[in-house]
Specification:
By secondary structure, this protein is α+β, with helices and mostly antiparallel strands. It is built from 4 helices and 8 strands, in the order E-H-H-E-H-E-E-E-E-E-H-E. The protein is 28% helix and 26% strand. The protein has a 4-stranded mixed sheet with strand order 7-6-5-8, with helices on one face. This is Helix-turn-helix domain protein.
Length: 139
C-alpha cells in the first residue's frame, strides 16, 4: 500500500532539489526520483535536478485526483474488493461519534467483509431513504 504524501509544505514559487522536495513531501528520495521518471517536469536535464514548486504541486494534485473513488449515497468503499460496493441486504449500522457525525458500518455485498464510512448526522435522513439504517449506541 502506498503512503500518503504531504503537499502543504511545498511552496509554489520555490524551486526544489530532489532531497528538498522529499523532505517537504515527507517521502524518501527514491520516491521523488520515481515521480520524475513517471513524468514530473524538471527545469532542465542537467544536474542537480531542480523541480519548480508549482510543477510539483500540479503533478501531485493530479496524482491524488486520479486515485479518488466517487461513491453514491448508499455505497461503501470495500478495502478487499478495492471498489465502491452496496452493502449486503441494503442494511447498515450507524454509530455516532459526536453530535454532528458518526460511522456507518456494513457488510460488503460481494465479498462479505466489514466496511465503514464516516458520515455527517445531517446526511442520515437521505441515507435512510436508500439503506435500512439501525442506530447503535449514543454519543
Amino acid at each position: 500500500m502506498s503512503r500518503r504524501f504531504r503537499t502543504r509544505a511545498i511552496k509554489a514559487n520555490k524551486s526544489y532539489t530532489v532531497d528538498e522536495l522529499a523532505d517537504a513531501a515527507c517521502v524518501s528520495i527514491p520516491t521523488v526520483r520515481n515521480w520524475i521518471k513517471d513524468g514530473m517536469p524538471l527545469i532542465d536535464g542537467n544536474r542537480p535536478m531542480i523541480i519548480l514548486g508549482f510543477h510539483a504541486l500540479e503533478y501531485l494534485n493530479a496524482r491524488k485526483a486520479k486515485s479518488k473513488q466517487p461513491m453514491a449515497l448508499g455505497e461503501f468503499y470495500c478495502l478487499r474488493c478495492k471498489a465502491p460496493r452496496t452493502p449486503f441486504g441494503a442494511m447498515a449500522d450507524y454509530v455516532p461519534s459526536s453530535d454532528t457525525g458518526g460511522r456507518l458500518k456494513a457488510i460488503c455485498g460481494v465479498c462479505e467483509c466489514a466496511c465503514n464510512r464516516n458520515v455527517s448526522a445531517r446526511d442520515l435522513p437521505d441515507i435512510r431513504k436508500v439503506l435500512d439504517v439501525e442506530i447503535r449506541g449514543s454519543w
